[in-house]
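Example S7 (structure tokens).
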């Protein structure tokens, strides 16, 4: 088994716009590699919820997206 490890990078910059105002930007990157994980092989495949199968799954139906301007 491979040894797990992570890569981390951070950077920041700050700039003084006026005497009382500064601008700051930060960046953070974190990546995990070769991490151990468990997998449930008995888990059923995912089911796509539709109006046709909603009652059989015990729900009223798929949610409709709400858009407002």
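Recovered sequence:
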């Amino acid at each position: 088994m491979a040894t797990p490890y992570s890569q981390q990078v951070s950077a920041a910059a700050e700039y003084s716009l006026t005497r009382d105002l500064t601008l700051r930007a930060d960046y953070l990157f974190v990546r995990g590699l070769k991490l151990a994980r468990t997998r449930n092989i008995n888990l059923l495949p995912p089911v796509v919820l539709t109006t046709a199968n909603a009652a059989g799954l015990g729900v009223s139906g798929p949610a409709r997206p709400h858009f407002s301007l």
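Notes on this example. The CA atoms of residues 12 and 49 lie 44 Å apart.
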